[in-house]
Design goal:
Number of strands of chain A: 9
Helix content of chain A: 25-40%
Number of helices of chain A: 8
Oligomer: heterodimer
Radius of gyration of chain A: 19 Å
Structural class of chain A: alpha/beta
Helix content of chain B: over 70%
Shape of chain A: globular
Order of helices and strands of chain A: EEEHEHEHHHEHEHEEH
Strand content of chain B: under 5%
Number of strands of chain B: 0
Distance between the termini of chain A: 44 Å
Largest sheet of chain B: none
Number of helices of chain B: 11
Largest interface: A-B, 26 and 21 residues
Strand order of the largest sheet of chain A: 5-6-7-3-8-9
Shape of chain B: flat
Structural class of chain B: mainly alpha
Chain lengths: ~260, ~260
Amino acid sequence: MHVIRADQVTKTFNVGKQPLTAVQDVSFTLEPGEFVSLIGPSGCGKSTMLKLIADIYQPTSGQLLVNGRSPREARLNRLLGMVFQDPALLPWRDVLGNVLLPLEISGRLDHTTRRRAEDLLHLVGLGDFLHASPHQLSGGMRQRVAIARALVLEPTLFLLDEPFGALDEITRKRMNLELLRIWTQSQTSALLITHSLSEAVFLSDRVLVMSPRPGTITDDIRIDLPRPRHVEMYREPRFFELETRISDALQLTAGSYEVAHE
Amino acid sequence: MSNERAALVRAGVITVGALLGWQFVGAPLLDFLPAPSQIAQVLIDRSDSLGTAVASTGSVALLGFLSGCAVAMVLALVSLSHPSVERFILRLGLALYAVPLIVVAPIVVLWLGAGTRPRIALSALAVFFGVLVNTIRGLRSVDRNRAEFFRVISASRWQTLWHLRVPSALPYILNGFKVGAPASVFGAVVGEWVGANQGLGVVLLYSLFQYQVDLLWTAMILTTLLALGGYGLFGLTEKFLIPWHESVRSPRLES
């Protein structure tokens, strides 16, 4: 069974009187345990695609299945863990309180799960900050809290919407390593939205390339770097080849986009 | 720390300077302006009756404040049910607020009779609209990402209300309380003007008709302090209730 199965998914928004197609005929699958990135320029509908999977939006046409069920059922069964670009923590709760929130909401808070929340915070390197306020943390630390919060219900599918987009390059690379470590331990499937080539190559098993409006998938690139991944891989020729491959795929679609407008 | 100390010293110097200016320049030059020393004398001479008046007005204002806030907050919650309900409630609130309190006062007294009930009602009426508008706006001011996160974890309507909407609204609600506290005193005094046998409003009217200018000023100052006290109280609670909010924790911008 696929974790995600998208079949000709289209989403049209009504902006004023003019319909705007954000995502058109998107088809792809995501297998259990896979890490897949969705890469594309700003405004190509990547986030929309993620929000369709998370049942924040509903598709206009096409079929979308998460673990063989509708996105709504998947959401109600709490199969999803989501991290946004903005950590969106609750400032009136401390770090641990933020991670406990999904447990409270789902009625699963007990000694075991409380322990799990604390373990997760240790895992993301925030063991000493359980009772700190979100506003006392740096951007990277806040995003780690958001990651722990998303994983505390042990989701089947981990959705990441440009989680490190607001961070500087150095912090971002460090967070990529951490994410990889956490994801390996959690054994979930992951879909990452990004516009960073190196991030996509470093983390993924596959990279889906999206073209701008209306967003559609133009390429599906397998990343054949062995796992576990390590920082030395950034320097390997194969890494550059894959990066160039994605870059070409993006440039090609961008070129045809401009031609279409002339 | 030394900044706060300097501000305190500055405030002290200004207050003492103003009092001295009032005592030795303002009061001798202007008619119907008693000197601070005269006001202090009135406070001492009439401490019993003024104390009773402050307690009476204060308790009416407190009850009016509480009931005005309670009604406003219940209506704000009801307004969440549908945009058309919100529009209706806001228009009704505005209509009530737009009628001058001094005009409504006799009607309220006719309806509720003498005693403290009409005073509490008028005080509540003065408080109600500000709290309503602020609470509604607060409940609507939920960060979009946070709302989407609550959807992803399938929080129920009530869970979202309690864990997200209400805390998000708290800075706005406290703002409503801050504006409402002085208004509750104003409403209580208006009620006392129309029909009451005690309270600061009664002292104000009595001293006016008796040409007791120093008593009039004293009552006016006491009323002002009561109103400011209510405002200050909520200013202080902000530090404890919403320490996470930008308005409380951000450093003051230097110009």
